[in-house]
Amino acid sequence: MSLPLHAPDASDAPAQDPSPYALAPAAHEPSAGDQWWRRAVIYQIYPRSFKDSTGSGMGDLAGITAELPKIATLGVDAIWLSPFFPSPQKDAGYDVSDYRGVDPLFGTMEDAKTLISDAASFGIRIIIDIVPNHCSNEHALFTAALAAAPGSAERAMFHFADGLGEGGNTPPNNWQSLFGGSGWTRVPNPDGTPGQYYFHLFDATQPDFNWRNPAVQEEFEKTLRFWLDAGAGGFRIDVAHAMFKKEGMPDWGGAPDGTPRPGYPFADAPMFGQPELHQVFARWREICEEYPGEPVLCSEANVRPLSRLADWVAPGQMHQSFNFDFLRTLWDRDALAEVIGDSLAAFDAVDAPTTWVLSNHDVSRHATRFGYDGRAMDLGDGIGPRDAQPDTVLGRTRARAATVFMLGLPGGAYLYQGEELGLGDNTTLEDAYRQDPTFLRSNGERIGRDGCRVPIPWVHDAPACGFSPTGETWLPQPENWAGFSRDLQEQDPDSTLNLYRKALALRSELGLGLGSLAFYANPQLPEVLAIRNGDTVNVLNLSGAPVPLPEGEPLLFSAADGPALAADGLLGANSAAWLRATA
Ligand code: GLC
């Protein structure tokens, strides 16, 4: 999309215009629909690392329930809970062995029901993480498939195939695991001789379901209904783009080794974005619509370009999809403007809301990513002790600004637990503690995602910073964690926690989530991104120096550390502000 941000010819510039801000035509008008999910702010809880009520070192459901009053002070509409189902925990619970249960690590079904109903009393919906692409190799369906013969109905629930070549020693195709290594694992026959292979896009302990089999579809419909009956407010759909594989599972020559890694153009990948997905999503939407309270479906879909992703949220499909293009964008004015403009154009075309997200449990937190000088780091799995370390002050300053700017955009937003405390990753975690299968499967070549999953700090002078009563933590907290504790931030009016609270309250009061968007053309300020949303001007200064704000517009709110602005009428370096438009 071409955006009106660049310098016109000097001869075209209005010579005596005192303001470097000129409003361009609207790039987005509000939808006629005003359903809750069009403007929702959804807070992701990673149960392992939120709050441990038992002292085991692992967070749990009762811990979350106990902290609901604190979550409610943030002003979020819903909580998305990462998996808490029975699981051998080979991929931190994304390897599910029973979709309709609760792992004793996290509590009981009673605890889940209490969490859902207590959250409702605060007006907060609970969104359940459904993992339909694969289960655990300990799921009853997979153990039955292993015990059954090739060609059986049990094996047809998964992708089993004979190997190629002499002795069937070559995997059935060249597809790789996203966690590293082959995507195929061979299993023995009952007599001990080498048998068939099964496909797993992730770890070998995560066999992929065969979604062409109606029995798989029925299983998941039952699971959706199970959680909707329990009062769930909807579902986040894990790896939704990979559920169907192209008929025949042909080799993929698109990448040299057939490895579908982020950054590779996915459009032709036979394991991603297959058209058959859409009839499943349509069915799931119908199921959600049978229930009160407008339960939502949000897809984790790594599909590009954005215009193709929009098909996923077209009428009758999912309600929302994560906008990973926004998350991937570096600290760069033009790149951000482009992704915002493109996102709104793509989603507006199907009358779906755009969502915005900066952090989650799979990527380095944005306070860490933005702590690298220049344009910030490109997304990798994470940062380890042998990597160049981020400038944590710069990272946190930019992260606060990025969040304030994001919350001033029209659409929905996702927040990841701990970002409201200004947390970055644990970037010095020793290898011995790492649990992410990407680290293990790549023999340490890929550092993995443990750094962004560290248990969060609550009380600065308590064991494990108040995360667990015994001081146990499943991953070690970094030494500086106490300084980010919630109790300290409660008392500091300029803390990141209070910044998030103010931003969320004002966003709701000003109706920014359901608002409009027009860019300001400000060619004289090449590192300033300014938009107008209704009567609010939202300005992000990506430069390392103060810049003038639009004149005459009263300041509503600023992300600067400490007292509002660098000076009257000047927005500080790496900061963001909202102003009331007077004209
Ligand atoms: C999703 C999850 C990630 C998990 C993967 C495999 O991408 O967000 O944490 O490892 O699916 O289930």
UniProtKB/TrEMBL annotation:
Keywords: Glycosidase, Hydrolase. The keyword Hydrolase applies. One of its GO terms (molecular function) is alpha-1,4-glucosidase activity. SMART domains: Aamy. It is an enzyme of class 3 (hydrolase). InterPro entries: GH, GH13_cat_dom, O16G_dom_2. Residues 1-27 are annotated as: Disordered. Its EC number is 3.2.1.20. It comes from the Bacteria. Residues 7-20 have a biased composition (Low complexity). SUPFAM superfamilies: (Trans)glycosidases. Residues 44-453 form the Glycosyl hydrolase family 13 catalytic domain. Belongs to the glycosyl hydrolase 13 family. This is Alpha-glucosidase.
